[in-house]
Amino acid sequence: MNQTTRQEAGARPGGPGLELGIEVPSRVPTHWYNLNADLPEPAPPPLDPATDEPIRPADLEPLFAKALIAQELSTERRLEIPRPVREVYSLWRPSPLRRAVRLERTLGTRARIYYKYEGVSPCGSHKPNSSVPQAYFNLVEGIRRLTTETGAGQWGASLAFACALFGMSCEVWQVRSSYEQKPYRRLQMGVYGSQCHASPSELTESGRRMRERFPDTTGSLGMAISEAVEVAAKDPGTHYALGSVLNHVMIHQSVIGLELLDQLAEAGEEQADVVFACAGGGSNAAGIIFPLLGRNLREGSTTRFVAVEPAACPSMTRGEYRYDFGDVAGMTPKLKMYTLGTDFVPPAIHAGGLRYHGMSPMVSHAVHLGLIEPIAVEQDRSFEAGVLFARTEGIVPAPESTHAIAGALDHATSAGVGDGEVIVIGVSGNGVLDLAAYDGRF
Amino acid sequence: MNQTTRQEAGARPGGPGLELGIEVPSRVPTHWYNLNADLPEPAPPPLDPATDEPIRPADLEPLFAKALIAQELSTERRLEIPRPVREVYSLWRPSPLRRAVRLERTLGTRARIYYKYEGVSPCGSHKPNSSVPQAYFNLVEGIRRLTTETGAGQWGASLAFACALFGMSCEVWQVRSSYEQKPYRRLQMGVYGSQCHASPSELTESGRRMRERFPDTTGSLGMAISEAVEVAAKDPGTHYALGSVLNHVMIHQSVIGLELLDQLAEAGEEQADVVFACAGGGSNAAGIIFPLLGRNLREGSTTRFVAVEPAACPSMTRGEYRYDFGDVAGMTPKLKMYTLGTDFVPPAIHAGGLRYHGMSPMVSHAVHLGLIEPIAVEQDRSFEAGVLFARTEGIVPAPESTHAIAGALDHATSAGVGDGEVIVIGVSGNGVLDLAAYDGRF
C-alpha cells in the first residue's frame, strides 16, 4: 500500500468520505446472504400490536434507518456490503476456520472437527458483524446518535466500537445488576467514547416510572429497551439499534457462514456434515447456518444444523411457536417465534447472551419447518466442554459458545458419528471477560 | 486438508508425536533471528555471583533445557523453529500489520503510521511467542513440569497455555497482591490446567521464611522467583521458565520483527523509518526491533528504534549501565544491564509488565552502543494516547503498549516528522483484562 491509494475525501456524513482507501482482503465477503430468498415459504410477518395487521415500513422509520428497514423486508438473495463496512470488517475478517486436531485426538473421535472463531473481533464476539453496518447505514441517512440496551454488555460494547469508528455518539442502557457487578464492559464502552447508563435510570420517563414503582429493582433487559427506545423516538437525529432477533441482524451475520463455505472448500471438504451453533436471540446461529442452509435448499447439499440452547432457557425445545412481544414490556411489534412467554424469568446462568424468552422469527421459522434441529444443554456440561476446548485448542470460549461445543462433543463421541464426518462448531466469542464464570469448574 | 495429512504418531515426549500435521501458513517464520550474530561487539556475558567469572552452560542445566541454554549462548544468525512450535504459532501468527488510517486522519499527520498487533494471541499479548518454544524444548528433553513466577499474570497465563497444548504440568507463583486483586488471570491459568499459588506461599522453604519474617507481606516478583526456582531446582523432572530478560527469550520474540519486514515489503514500503516499542524486561522491544536492527547493521538500512519506558520506572533513561542481579533477592547470575538497583521499588503503575528494575542485557547493550534510543513517557500521557488509539483504530491497547503509542503520536505530530515518514508502533497486547486501569481516563 503506498500513499497514493489513500483517499483524501473526508466529508461526513455519507459519500466517499466514509471510505478510507484501506485495503480489504478479497476473502472478506462483498455481499450478505438473505435466507428469505430461498425459503420454501416466507416467514410470518411482524404484526402491529394495536391492529394485528402486518407492520408497515413507515411504522419503523422513527427508530430505524430506511436502508435497514428495506433489508428487514427484503427477499433479495444477495445484498451488497458497502465498502466502508468492509474496511472495518477487515480489522478481523475473515475470521479463522481451524481444524481442532488436538481436540480430535483427545476425544479419539473418527470425525473431523473444525471451528469457526468469532472471538477475534476487537470486542471478542460476533456482535460487531451487525453493529458496524447498523452504525454505517444510520450515518449515511444523517443520524449522528444511536441508543441501545445491553445485558452483560457484549452488544453495547460492539455498538460503542462501531460508533467510535464512524465518529457517532452512542448511549447504552445497561441492566443495573450487570452495570454494577461487571464493570469491564461498561469501561470498554467508555473507552470507545460511549455513555453507559445503569437502567432503570433517571434520564427517561420510563426509567423514572420504573424506579418509582420498584425502588430496589436491579433492572431487566425489558426496562433497558424501554429507555433506549424512548430516547430514540423523541429525537429525530437519534435512532435505536438492536443486536439480535430482527431479520436485518440475521442478514449482517451471514458473513460468518459465507466465509465458512469458502474456507471449507479451501480445506478440501465437500461440505460440512453437521454444524453446531449456540442460540439465544438467534444472530449467531443464523449467521453461521443460513448461508449453508440456503445451499442445501438451492443445491441439494445435506448439511445438518443443530441450534444449541441452555436447558435453563429452552425457548426452542420447550417453548410455543406463536406470536409474542419481543420485549418484556410489550412495546415492540408482535413476532411469530418460539417463546417461553414474556413473563418467563430466566435463571441467572452465566451465558447472558442466551437468556432471552424468545427466538429470532427467521430462526424460529426454520426450526418450525424442520430445517434446524434444536437441542438443550445443561450449564455444567457446557462449561466442562469449554474447559476441554481451552486445554486442547488454546482458546477460552465464551459461556454462550460452550453450549455449541458441548453439543458437538457429545455428537463426536457418540456411537452414531460417521467415519470422517465433518463437524463444524460455531465459536461465537472468547470468554476473557467471563473468566469469573469458570471459577470452580476446573 | 484431508484426513491423510493428519499424522497418526502420538508418542510423547519428543519425536514426530509432537507434530500434528496441522497446516502452517508459509508466512509464519521458519527460523528465529539472533542479533548476537550481527552486533559489532558481543554483549557482556552473565557472571557467576560467587566468582565473578562468566557463567558456564552446565551451571544453568538444573533450571533450563539444554536447547535453550545453547540458544542463550548462540551466535548463529538463524535458529530453526521446530514444526510443533510453528503449528501452535499458527493459531495467531502471522500477527497483523495494519495501516492506522483513521488515526493518521485524526492527527492530521504527514506520516504513514502502521501498527504490528500482538494482542491477537490466545493470551492477548506477545508472551506466548516464547512460552510455546520454552515448553516444547523442555518437553523433548523429558521435562514434564515447568515452574515460573508472574506479576499481573500475562506471563503466567502464557506459560499455562503452552503447557496445556503440550500436555505438561505448570505451577505459577503469582505475587499475592495481584493474585487477590486481579483474579481473571489466575482463573485463566486454572482453565488451562495450571496451578497458581499466591506468593509467598507455604509450599516452599523460601516462601515460609518470607511469611515468617514479613507476616503481612503482599509479595513481590523477587519472592515469587525464589519460590519457582526452588521448586524447579529440587526436582530433576521440573524446570524453570522466564518470560523476559534472557537472550533466548529475545530470540523467540524475533518472530514479530521478522514478520514485520515481510509485511512492510508487501505493503510497498522500502523500510520503516522509525519503530516505537515499549520496554519493561525488553522482550517485546527486542522482538520487534532486533530483526530490523540486524538489517541496518548488515545492509545499511537506516531505521531508527525508540524503546519507550514509563517515567515511573526509568531504567534506560535514568539507570546505570552495570552488572546487577536480575532478581530482587540476588539469586540469579549477575547481568550487565541498565538498572535502577535491586532495591528500587517501582510505584504501582498500571503497566505491570514495565515494572522491572533492570533491562534485558541484549537490549541494554544495543542502547549502550547507541543503536536504540530510550525515552520515558508519563502514565497520564500514555493512557490518553491509548484512548485515542481505541477510538480511531478500534482496539483497546494494553497499558504497556500505550507507552509505545504515546511515543509514536508525539513524534507523528511534531514539527520534525518527515513527509511520508513510515512510523511503526509495536502494540504488544490488548487491554481487555486491564480495562480497570482505564477507569476515569475518558
TrEMBL record, chains A, B:
<comment type="pathway">
    <text>Amino-acid biosynthesis; L-tryptophan biosynthesis; L-tryptophan from chorismate: step 5/5.</text>
</comment>
<keyword id="KW-0822">Tryptophan biosynthesis</keyword>
<dbReference type="InterPro" id="IPR036052">
    <property type="entry name" value="TrpB-like_PALP_sf"/>
</dbReference>
<keyword id="KW-0057">Aromatic amino acid biosynthesis</keyword>
<dbReference type="Pfam" id="PF00291">
    <property type="entry name" value="PALP"/>
</dbReference>
<dbReference type="GO" id="GO:0030170">
    <property type="term" value="F:pyridoxal phosphate binding"/>
</dbReference>
<feature type="region of interest" description="Disordered">
    <location>
        <begin position="1"/>
        <end position="21"/>
    </location>
</feature>
<feature type="domain" description="Tryptophan synthase beta chain-like PALP">
    <location>
        <begin position="92"/>
        <end position="429"/>
    </location>
</feature>
<dbReference type="InterPro" id="IPR006316">
    <property type="entry name" value="Trp_synth_b-like"/>
</dbReference>
<dbReference type="GO" id="GO:0005737">
    <property type="term" value="C:cytoplasm"/>
</dbReference>
<keyword id="KW-0663">Pyridoxal phosphate</keyword>
<comment type="similarity">
    <text>Belongs to the TrpB family.</text>
</comment>
<dbReference type="GO" id="GO:0004834">
    <property type="term" value="F:tryptophan synthase activity"/>
</dbReference>
<keyword id="KW-0028">Amino-acid biosynthesis</keyword>
<dbReference type="InterPro" id="IPR006653">
    <property type="entry name" value="Trp_synth_b_CS"/>
</dbReference>
<dbReference type="InterPro" id="IPR001926">
    <property type="entry name" value="TrpB-like_PALP"/>
</dbReference>
<comment type="subunit">
    <text>Tetramer of two alpha and two beta chains.</text>
</comment>
<keyword id="KW-0456">Lyase</keyword>
<dbReference type="InterPro" id="IPR023026">
    <property type="entry name" value="Trp_synth_beta/beta-like"/>
</dbReference>
<protein>
    <recommendedName>
        <fullName>tryptophan synthase</fullName>
        <ecNumber>4.2.1.20</ecNumber>
    </recommendedName>
</protein>
<feature type="region of interest" description="Disordered">
    <location>
        <begin position="33"/>
        <end position="56"/>
    </location>
</feature>
<dbReference type="GO" id="GO:0052684">
    <property type="term" value="F:L-serine hydro-lyase (adding indole, L-tryptophan-forming) activity"/>
</dbReference>
<comment type="function">
    <text>The beta subunit is responsible for the synthesis of L-tryptophan from indole and L-serine.</text>
</comment>
